[in-house]
Write a structure and sequence with these properties.
By secondary structure, the protein is mostly helical. The chain has twelve helices and three strands, in the order αββααααααβααααα. InterPro entries: Glycosyl_transferase_4 (IPR000715).
């Protein structure tokens, strides 16, 4: 796609997003803050609808298969309904299962060894739901998504998919214009976070299959470590892990420690970009192995646990001084 067409696409996505804002404002599709929220003012919800719309545009431009388009639209539609009027777990989970099966079909995973399917299924479902809770502070979802998309686009194995990645990257930039602010105009909502999570999960599996390099899973490591440790911690406390919370490290930093939402989001994105750059550099030089990836992941986890413990001690100290 020539550059002028990318510019036209960008302008079209901005126009679509602004049109959605009018609809959201008219029909009161808003996010009201509560005790578990990281924001304090009423904000338009569902601005992330631009992500599945970008997928539909990519489909009509023949950049993506009908299976992936349908998978993303399926979870986006159910999630958008849930954003407006909360649904029970069943229809949401059913849409996730249906979408994952479509991803499997697109990637021809049903021809793989049978024991691999439940492992990939659980990992992808887990990733989608963990990423969904990421839309907690301004900018974190869009910056993290953009870092992943840029990293995927840099890999030679994904050269044929550059138009699709650029299209999704442009949708992130458009959403970021309205979300990456001190006072966000809109949040992604489930429609945005879940559809983007599914797309990124699909592209991760696709990249690993086509490159044969499992270490690319580290492209999701910064938030992945935060999500997994937080889930384990909440389970130990016997909390409902499916309920909204403020227990992620980034939430502690933004809410309790008082750091800027945008600054925390940038820190997470820059850290992940640094990790991705290391992984790509080592792979390019033929030095990337699973042993290194495992050791690097362990080191990152230990550093994360140390930082988390320090922040929690600081918070306890602050409370004791009140």
């Amino acid at each position: 796609m020539p550059y002028i067409q990318y510019l036209v696409l960008f302008v079209a996505l901005v126009a679509i997003e602004l049109f959605y804002f009018k609809i959201a404002d008219k029909y009161n599709i808003i996010d009201k803050p509560n005790s578990r929220s990281s924001h304090t003012s009423i904000t338009l919800r569902g601005g992330g609808v631009i992500f599945p719309i970008a997928i539909l545009i990519a489909f009509f431009l023949d950049y993506v298969s009908w299976e992936i388009s349908l998978a993303v639209v399926l979870v986006a539609l159910v999630s958008f309904i849930d954003d407006i009027k909360p649904l029970s777990q069943l229809p949401r989970f059913a849409s996730h299962v249906g979408a994952v099966l479509l991803v499997f079909y697109d990637l021809n995973l049903f021809s793989e060894v049978i024991w691999l399917l439940p492992i990939v299924f659980v990992l992808l479902i887990g990733w989608v739901n963990a990423f969904n809770f990421m839309d907690g502070i301004n900018g974190i979802t869009v910056l993290y998504s953009l870092v992943a998309i840029v990293s995927f686009a840099y890999l030679p194995v994904n050269a044929a998919n550059l138009p699709l990645l650029i299209t999704m990257g442009l949708s992130c930039i458009v959403f970021g214009i309205f979300n990456l602010r001190k006072k966000a105009k809109t949040f992604a909502g489930d429609v945005g976070s879940i559809s983007m999570a599914l797309f990124l999960g699909y592209f991760m599996i696709k990249t690993i299959i086509e490159s044969g390099q499992l270490a690319y899973i580290l492209f999701f490591s910064v938030y992945g470590i935060d999500a997994i440790i937080t889930i384990i911690n909440r389970l130990l406390k016997r909390e409902n892990i499916f309920q909204p919370h403020r227990s992620h490290l980034y939430q502690y930093l933004a809410n309790e420690m008082g750091y800027s939402h945008v600054a925390v989001s940038i820190i997470y994105a820059v850290l992940q970009l640094g990790v991705n750059a290391i992984i790509i550099y080592l792979d390019t030089n033929g030095s990337l192995s699973l042993y290194f990836a495992g050791g690097f992941l362990l080191l990152m986890t230990l550093v994360y646990l140390g930082v988390r413990a320090y922040i929690i001690r600081q918070l306890r100290f602050k409370k004791s001084m009140v």
